[in-house]
């Protein structure tokens, strides 16, 4: 009678297989997370470029509104006035539509109050930290190094306002080409817009009362 051969124990081999599967799963999870993060970053970079494009449209609309009539108010009371200028009997448009904020997906903007009333500019209500901090187009050079999207302010500061106050122009404005910091905020809420007192940091050089 032949002796029964001893079978080799398979437990160590199974253990190595399990470890391999776990390592593969961990590497796959890390790679997937990195891909998701990279995708989100690319998406936000694209949204930032769209924000600059929409902001330029708004800024040009404020400029067009201001220069279209010598009567007051020179700036729109609400953003909807850019779609149909209430100062004229017929339909006069300065903006094709109220663009949604590419970063929030909502047609809601922070607004920058103009001296004497009205709105002179807008900014995004997004609370994230900007990815883009350099290499801006020349018209938005003042945005470089800003820590919040609220400091990307798209406004038109008229030359006569600059002459009366001696203030530098707004960041992103078309006049004078420079900017100064003016912390402080003024409450001015319009349809589809928000500007809470003391809210957004103000890098615009918006005209204010001279300090005593």
Mean pLDDT over the residues: 76
Question: What is the molecular shape?
Answer: elongated
What is the SS-derived class?
alpha+beta
- Distance N terminus to C terminus? 114 Å
Low-confidence stretches: 164-191, 195-212
SS element count, helices: 2
The proportion of residues forming helix, as a percent range, comes to: 25-40%
Roughly what fraction of the amino acids lie in strands?
5-15%
Order of helices and strands: HEEEHE
Number of domain units? 1
Instruction: Determine Rg (CA atoms, Å).
Output: 28 Å
Strand order of the largest sheet: 3-2-1-4
The main sheet comes to: 4 strands, mixed
Total number of beta strands: 4
Task: Tell me briefly what this model is.
It contains 2 helices and 4 strands, in the order H-E-E-E-H-E. With 212 residues, the protein is α+β, with helices and mostly antiparallel strands.
Structure description:
β1 and β2 form a beta hairpin. It contains two helices and four strands; from the N terminus they run αβββαβ. The C terminus is likely disordered. It has one domain. The chain is of the alpha+beta class. Strands 3-2-1-4 form a four-stranded mixed sheet, covered by helices on one side. 31% of the residues are buried. The protein is 31% helix and 7% strand.
């Amino acid at each position: 009678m032949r002796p029964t051969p001893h079978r080799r124990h398979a437990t160590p081999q199974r253990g190595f297989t399990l470890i391999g599967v776990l390592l593969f799963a961990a590497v796959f999870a890390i790679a997937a997370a990195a891909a998701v993060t990279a995708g989100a970053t690319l998406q936000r970079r694209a949204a930032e470029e769209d924000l600059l494009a929409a902001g330029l449209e708004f800024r040009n609309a404020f400029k067009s509104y201001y220069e279209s009539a010598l009567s007051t108010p020179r700036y729109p009371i609400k953003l909807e006035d850019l779609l149909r200028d209430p100062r004229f009997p017929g339909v006069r448009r300065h903006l094709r539509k109220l663009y949604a904020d590419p970063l929030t997906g909502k047609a809601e903007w922070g607004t920058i109050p103009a001296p004497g009333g009205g709105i002179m500019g807008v900014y995004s209500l997004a609370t994230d930290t900007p990815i883009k901090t350099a290499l801006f187009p020349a018209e938005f050079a003042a945005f470089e190094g800003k820590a919040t999207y609220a400091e990307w302010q798209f406004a038109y500061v008229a030359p006569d306002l600059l002459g009366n106050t001696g203030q530098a122009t707004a960041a992103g404005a078309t006049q004078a080409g420079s900017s100064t910091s003016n912390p402080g905020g003024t409450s001015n809420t319009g349809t589809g817009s928000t500007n809470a007192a003391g809210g957004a940091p103000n890098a615009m050089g918006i005209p204010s009362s001279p300090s005593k």
